Amino acid sequence: MTVLILTCEEDVTADMVVVHLNDTGIPVVRLDPADLTGSVALSGSSCTARSAVISPPGTAGEHRGLRSVWVRRPGVPAARAAEPSAWLTEESAQALYGMLRGSGARWMNDPDAARRARHKPWQLRLAQTCGLPVPATLITTFPRAAREFAERYPDLVVKPVSGAHPQDPPRAVPTSRVPPETDFSAVAFGPTLLQRRVPKRADIRLTAVGDRLLAARKATAPDADPAEVDVRFAASPEPWRPVEVPQRVAEAVLEYVRAARLAYGAFDFAEDRDGTWWFLECNQSGQFGFVEVDTGLPIARTIAGWLARPEPPEPAPRPVPTGRRSDRAGLAVRSVRAGPGSIPARCQPLPGTAGARRAGAVGA
Question: How far is CA 214 from CA 47, 233, 285, 291, in A?
Fold first, then answer.
């Protein structure tokens, strides 16, 4: 059973996990959906037993079934095709992810759950529902609403609703403090997320892998610039250090990942002067390498362990009632290096089905 990793070619974070997977001897296939339909090809049929034949560019090999799929940092499907188009991208995405859904593999993370989990307003509401403290937040295009919010909470930060700016390459937009003299007229030109600033004594990065929680803490330097509120851009000599997760936070985070249907999540918290962990966001595909390098926390090994876990046994197939015919079967997926002479997967009806009984003209 194979582990499939969907990510870009230069992904050091994925490399860290692959090292541990290789130690287990479990087959690993890594490819980027952006390479469809160039160096990666696929083929599927509804009249074959469930199987997967997936190979990275330049090789060919067969892997009967997928154990798990890690959707790490995949490119846009068919983005590097000879003649890319929005239509080809949609067709390729429907084909690839539709076939993978039929494989029965476990997902880290399920694409539908991951898409929903990216929505910051939804994150904030779910965090509140699960019992995590959330700073007062307003998302608005009404300047008047922004001014009234600022009167109530004079110390604010502003941050993007969606995350990275979608340019090529993507540009991170830092969280910034809102100057007291801001009049908020520009709010009318686009949704603006305003949030009460948490005077913090540390930043917390908590990585959830299944039911395992691995947390790290980065103390705020005594001489830190008060204008620098985003730990990603603040110059600080303080390293990340392992930290125990408070029981109430652990229970709330586990409830969050279960409700969100996430197998992986990178949670960011701000620890205030009283020691309270304030929820800021959960990145469903967040980086963890920088934390592991500083702290030695076994995040990559834990992810590899989750991906390598054997899938639960399949239930026995129900017998087809006498007098009824069935041609139901699984899905075959083939991804090989494209080129002259490529041969698509052929139909293999399941033994005992009507399709098998009349398969004299169908290849095995």
Answer: 44, 23, 15, 10
Per-residue burial over 202-239, b if 16 or more Cβ lie within 10 Å, else e, is: bbbbbbbbbeebbbbbbbbeeeeeeebbebeebeeebe
CA distance readout (Å), 202 to 21, 275, 330: 33, 9, 51
Q: Please report the sign of the dihedral spanned by the C-alpha atoms of residue 285, residue 289, residue 290, residue 292.
A: positive
Give the model's confidence band at 330: pLDDT under 50 very low, under 70 low, under 90 confident, else very high: very low
Rounded CA-CA distance 112/123 in Å is 15
The pLDDT, as a whole number, for residue 38 is 86
User: Residue 203: which H helix or E strand, with range?
Assistant: strand 200-209
Mean of pLDDT over the chain? 82
Where residue 195 falls among pLDDT bands split at 50, 70, 90?
Answer: very high
Structure confidence by residue, pLDDT tens digits, 142-159: 999 999 999 999 999 999
pTM of the shown model: 0.81
- Please check whether residue 40 is in contact with residue 57, taking contact to mean a CB–CB distance below 8 angstroms: yes
The token duo for 204 is: 């917390």
Among residues 3, 61, 32, the alpha carbon closest in space to that of 336 is found at 61
Instruction: Please report the pLDDT score of residue 37 as a whole number.
Output: 86
Distance CA 326, CA 355 (A): 8
Distance CA(155)–CA(165), nearest Å, equals 25
User: In degrees rounded to 5, what are phi and psi of residue 208?
Assistant: -105, 125
Spatial separation of the C-alpha atoms in residues 183 and 283, rounded to whole Å: 31
